[in-house]
């Protein structure tokens, strides 16, 4: 390029503002210090409350781990899975099987984490080419297939399950406290792992894939490898949570009704993520707190408990389209765990950054996904998922918002839940 051409090019772009792309550093230090203090307080928790309250906290930490893994899949990689209960169940059995051979369940948690991640590799090749609702349904079918295989193995209890050996000599209070510390460790590692993964180059890759997969591929991004990595990490996290669940329940039962392979686990992790704010690290934390409060207050109302959860999910998805924490972040610019890059304009206050390359997610798309998951338990929610899904897809194509995958997945789940409910009703009428 000649000197005159270079001068001419500089003059052509001289009117453009001097934009800068930066990443928050100060927030990371304060967030790390605050997180450390919270972990220290939570570590002391069993010393000040009874085993009953500690047991509730264990359940909350399990849901938090699962929600963080599901958020990594759906919120950052665009993989809406309805089959994460497969890895939860496998994790429980990978604690049970070593315990049957004399290995302590505490070391079994490490085995469960690694083994669940390893099992994700062959399962990934079965669903790698699927997208949107097809991926969601395929993962659900795979989870059901894994459960059916486990139920045929009589040496590990078959369809009835079996108690967990190796911990019968523990004092109940000590066992509850140890289980709590194990659950806390798993949850902290899960959240920390997701945070540092998203702060790395992989996080940028996932953001580009989520926003525009075709553009990411054309830029040389290894889309398949990035999604495989996220799928394995999410499976390992769910496997660790399943191992903690097996220790807490002192038994492993594979059945779908309250068992380790129940689709209700996926409903819980999706609910917590959507309520708190999908696509944010803080979202699953806030959503888990809301979910546990609702569960403790409404669990005595039987079926009404699920209906209220569905109504809350729909209301939040419509009126707080980015979830509770996402709405707070949007209005007050509060980021406890910043993972993205930000665009700064001249004269702009540095407390009000603009996220780079993150289009808003359509509210009806999130509502469709929430209704689709809850629709497996409440039929009206499945019908709403179909309606919201169709409306969201039209809006996404018209406005350019993100959320087409969420809308399609929710719509497909709504159709499947409706068909299954009709079959169940017909069966009950003919019984």
UniProtKB/TrEMBL annotation:
InterPro entries: ABC_transp_permease, DUF4190, LivM-like. It is a multi-pass membrane protein. Signal peptide: none annotated. CDD domains: TM_PBP1_LivM_like. Keywords: Cell membrane, Membrane, Transmembrane, Transmembrane helix. It comes from the Bacteria. Residues 365-423 form the DUF4190 domain. Its main location: membrane. It is found in: Cell membrane. GO terms for cellular component: plasma membrane. The chain crosses the membrane at residues 28-45, 57-79, 86-103, 109-127, 134-159, 179-198, 228-250, 270-294, 301-320, 365-388, 409-429. GO terms for molecular function: branched-chain amino acid transmembrane transporter activity. This is DUF4190 domain-containing protein.
